[in-house]
Design goal:
Length: about 300
Amino acid sequence: MNFRQIEAFRAVMICGTASRAAEMLRISQPAVSRHIAELEASARLTLFERSRGRLKVTAEGKAFFEEVTRAFTGIERLRFAAENIRSFVGARLRVVSMPALGHAFLPRVVGRFARQFPNSSVLLQVRSSEFVREEIAAGNYDLGFAADEINSAGVEVQPFASPDAVCLLPQGHRLAGYQTVRPVDFDNERFVTLANEDAARSRFDRIFAEAGVRPKIVSETQYSLTVCNLVRNGVGIALVNPFSLDGLDLTGMALVRFRPSAQFRSLLVRPPNAPQSRLADAFLGMAELERDRQAAGWL
């Protein structure tokens, strides 16, 4: 038996006659009758009694129709499932990020994503870069954003953003009126910086060492957002990731360009050999647009 034969049988059961079934299927009545006869021969069942050109369903035909109905219900479910997959109904995207991108930047992206894909959801976890690497390697998340000091073994990485560090300082500070500050301006200056293991911290230290200057380090911390709040509370000045300033109240603080360039480099991290996902690709595309939009407004 084949699908066309079963489809003809179902149409006759629904419509009541072969002629109406033919109209429903947009084929000829003889074709319907032939499909029914072939189905009966193949199944070795008498599905209809023929009397004066009319078809009367048999007990076997009724029992067979119940199974056909179940089968077609399954097909309808598959069609519905395919439609849901196409429109991302019930889909969940799992994203894990380092704090510099996770506290304000990615929530903006999630907002845009939610408007475009209202039937899907996003799990956003904000943790350390090493946690990002471990969870992506384990396949627990679809997309990760981490600093460039992570070990890339076991994950797929590509550059995501590399903004130049900017100098954050209190509004009344002597350097606040400068258009650009340079390493020499930091000599013996109270300085808030990142922890030693941070790759950006290593770049700052190298730049200061090459210039022969020594800022007075008064506080070290793991996260850029904490650095910003230490500056807010008058602890010292700092070189910060512009992404960490997104959504931060900068009242009473000033931003000044720092040269030479010292970059905060972040990576997009994905599970190894992950299948292509239109949902993840759409989210990443929005993240790239938001990244470029924000970059245009930095110093």
